[in-house]
Amino acid sequence: MSIEQGISNRIDQDKYFESKQWFQKLIQVDQYIGDVYSINYEFARVIIHDFFREKVGGIPSLSFLIASRIDPNKNDINFKKEDSSFILLRVMDAATLPQDKEAERIRVETAQRISGETEKHWDDPGTMDAKTKNLLGFAGIQCRIIGTFFLEENNQNGEAPLNLKFGCDISNYYPNRGLKVYKPNGEALEKIINYIDPSNTEELRKRYGSNAEQAKVKIGHVRYASTNRKYQNIDDIPVYIQPMDLLNQKSALFGMTRTGKSNTTKIIAKSVFELRNLKDNEGKDIRIGQIIFDPNGEYANENIQDNNSALKNVWKLLPNGVKDNEVITYGITRHPNDIDRNLMLLNFFEEENLQIGKEIIDNILSEDNTTYIKNFCQVSFEKPDINDMSALTRYNRRVFAYKSVLARAGFAIPKNQKPYIKRLFGEKILEALKESPSNNAYEYEEAAKIFENHSPSWEQLASAFETLDKFIRDKDSGYQDFEREYINKPGKSGERWADEDLKKIIGIFQYPNGTRKIGKAKEQHSADTKNDYAEDIYNHLKQGKLVIIDQSSGEPDLNKSSAARIMTKIFKENQKLFIAGKTNIPEILVYIEEAHNILPAGNDLDLSDIWVRTAKEGSKYHIGMVYATQEVSSIQKNILKNTSNWFISHLNNTDETKELCKYYDFVDFEPSIRRAQDKGFLRVKTLSNLFVIPVQVDKFKIKN
Predict the structure, then answer these.
(1) Which stretches of the chain score pLDDT less than 50?
(2) How many CB atoms sit inside 10 A of residue 562's CB?
(3) What is the pTM of this model?
(4) What DSSP designation does 524 have?
(5) How far is 570 from 560, CA to CA, in rounded Å?
(6) Nearest to 329, CA basis, from 626, 102, 145, 551
C-alpha cells in the first residue's frame, strides 16, 4: 500500500470516527420515541407509543424531534452517503392511524364497562388484556419538516474537522424506508436551537475579528408551550442570540402590553453594549452606537416594574464599573434622579439654527392640511449671496417676520436678540402705509411708525407685520398701486416688493390659531443654548455610546418630529460617508418603542418617509433598526418586508396573527401566539437562526 493510500485510509477512518461523534451528539438513543410511517417534502407522520412518550417526558406541541436512518453507535458511518443525515421535525398535531376507529371502539366499550367506578380508569390493569392495551398505546403525530442537518468537509482543507450544515428542506425522499425518531434533550437540543452556519461564523470573523462568534448572548431557555412542566427536561437548555445579527438589519418585537417586549429590548441593548469587551481585526473595541426613543421613560429612569434595574445603568457592567459617559440620556425636561441629563433643546433665534428650528416646526405641523400652515411649511431659510443686496434685504425681512411669529407664539426671546430693521423698509412702502385711503388707514399708519423705528420691541414688530399682511390683502389699501409702480420702476428687477415667502410667513397672523400651532414647538426651544442637540447625539453615536431619549414628558407631535429629525441627521451623515467612499462609517442601532407612534402607518405608502428610507436603505449605511409595538398591522409593509429578526410574544386576535403568518414559519405558531399569554414567552427568529425557536426570555437585570 502506498503512502498516499495510507494517508487516505487514515483520513477516512478519522472521518468515520468524527461522523460517529456528531451522530451521538445529536441522536440520544434513550430518547427514542417512534418511527416515521408517512412522509412527503413538507410533513412527516410519526407513530409513537405511550411507553416511549412517558420515558422522554412527553411530546409537547411545537417541540423538536430528529429523524434518521443511522444508528449512532455504528463505527462505519460514512457522512457522504445520502442517508447520513438528521431530519429536523416540529410537532404540529395528532395524526390518524388506520386502526384508530377500532381503537376508539375498544376504548368506548371499556369505559362503558367501568362507568360509575370512580376508583378505576378504562386503561387500568385488569380492564383489558395486555396485548390490547399495548396496541392502544400507539398513536400518530403530524410533524412539519424544518430541514436537514448533514456533515460536510471543509473545502479549503480536507483534513480539517467536519462542518455541521443545515438545509431548510430535505434532499432525499423516504416514501418506503423507515426513519427512527428521537426527542432531543440536553446537548443535542442546545446544538440544534443555537446552530449557526459555518459560513456566517466566518463572515463574523472577517468583519469583527476572530472572537466575534464568542459575542453570543443567552436570552433565555427553550419553552415549547404555556403549560411548561418541569419533567420535559428542557428548562435549563439555553437559547443564545448573536448581537451581530442586529447590526445593519431590521428587528421587530411584537406583542400585547406587559408580555415582555421591553424586557427583551433591554436584553438586546445590553448584549450590543457589551460588544465593546471584544476586539475587531484591528485590535479596537467593537463599539456600536445605540439610540433608544423611550416614550414612557422606562429605559432612562429606574422604576418598580424592573426592580429599579434601568437600562441607563448598563455602564455598571464595564470593567471597574466606570461610567465615563458611556450612557447618555436626553429629555425635554429635567428629571430629579438624572442630574446629568442633556436637555433636548435648541435656540430657534440663533442664525445658524433658523432652518433647523423651522424644520422642527414643519415636522410638528406635517399632518396639518390647513392651507396657511402648508404654505408656512414651504418656507426655508437659505442665506443668499452677501453681495446681492436686494436678495439679502428680502432674506432679512423674512427672518425678522419669522422671529416675530416665534415671539408671538410664546418662544422665550434670548437677551442678545434685539430687532434692528434699519433699511428693511424703504420710503415708498412706508409712504403707502401712511397715505392709505382704506378704512383701516389708522392701523396702517401705526405699522409704518413701527417700521420707521429701527429698534422696536418684538411685540411691536409682530403687530406691524400682522398689519402689513392685512395691508397687502386689502384691495382698498393702496398696496396694489404701490406694487405696480414698484415693479415698473426703471432699473428695478421687476420683482414684487413682497415675495411669496414673506407672504406665507406673515399670513400666519391672519388666524388666531396660527401662532398657537407654531407654539407647539416651544418646548424644544431654549433661549440659553447655542448647540444643536441632533449634532451632539450623532457625535455620541459615532463614539459608540448608548443614547436614551426620554420622551415621556413631551407631546406626541413633538416626540414624533424630534425623533424624525434625529433619524434624518443619522441617516444623512452616514449616507454622506458612504457616498464619499469612506470605510469608517459608524455602526448605529436605532430602537423605537411604541413604534406605531413614530413609524408610518401600515396603509401609508409614502416611500420618502425617513423611517421607510432607513428600513430600505439603512443596511448599506450601517444603520440597524429595532422597533417594538403591539400590532403587526400598524407597521408599514415596506418595513416589515425588510425585517430580518423577529421576537414575538402574545397577540390576541387573528388579524394580527394572520399578518404575521406571511413571514418565515410563524404559521406553525399562530394558535400558540394567540392563546399563550405568559410574560416573556417569545418565538424568536434571527438572521443566524434558520427557523423559529420558542423561548422563555430571561428577566433583565444588572448585577451591582
Answers:
(1) 1-8
(2) 27
(3) 0.80
(4) G
(5) 15
(6) 551
